[in-house]
Amino acid sequence: MARPLASRVTIENGAFRINGTPTYAGRSWRGHRIEGLLFNSRMANAIADDENPATRGAWAYADGDWDAERSTREFIAALPSYRAHGLLGVCLNLQGGSPQGYSWHQPWKICGFNPDGTIKPAWAARLNSVIKTYPDVSQFWTYDRAEFLKNPVYSRDYPPAKNLEP
Q1: How many other CB atoms sit within 10 Å of the CB of residue 133?
Q2: Residue 87: HSE in the Cβ half-sphere, 13 Å Cα cutoff
Q3: Contact assessment for residue 142 and residue 6, using Cβ atoms and an 8 Å cutoff
Q4: Can you tell me the distance from the alpha carbon of 106 to that of 102, in angstroms, rounded to the nearest whole number?
């Protein structure tokens, strides 16, 4: 029988479930109940690349130059360890992060989108390599594609955010 390509996450009575089973079923940590929580980590740079030649060195490895494909391969290789330590999800980012953490001056160029909103092919390839790993680490889930596509990210017709100052 073929393995499912992804898991399904639902929320029932304020608790997360993956494929119908509560997360961390029956578990606690230091006396705190963790069943129904969803531990995850923002992995902003897992598929990122810096297109600014002047700042690529900030991302360099101790043993060589920066390599976005290597970074993605190493991220994928680490997924089973993350899962074994209880991390049930990761958040990937198509706009990357900072090699310095949070900083005011950000000269690097790490955006996976073209000006027209399409995803750059190299970023898409790295993202797809991670997605193809999902069933092997049971750490990710699907979204309702039809519902997502009803409200495209770059649509000017999508209702504006509420409660923002003018």
Answers
A1: 17
A2: 15
A3: yes
A4: 9
Distance (Å, rounded) from C-alpha 42 to C-alpha 86?
15
What lies within 8 Å, CB to CB, of 65 at 6+ separation is 56, 57
Q: What is the pLDDT of residues 77-127, one digit of tens each?
A: 998 898 888 888 888 888 877 777 777 777 888 888 887 777 889 998 898
Q: CB-based contacts of 112: which residues, under 8 Å, 6+ apart?
A: 47, 48, 94, 95, 96, 119, 120, 123, 124, 127
pLDDT in tens, 20-43: 899 999 999 999 999 999 888 888
Question: What residue ranges do the domains of the chain occupy?
Answer: 44-137
Structure tokens given for 112 = 């996976």
The pair of structure tokens assigned to 119 is: 């995803």
Strands (E), the chain: 9-12, 15-18, 21-22, 28-29, 32-33, 40-43, 89-92
Residue 17, helix vs strand vs coil: strand
Measuring CA to CA, which residue among 70, 87, 91, 80 is closest to residue 136? 80
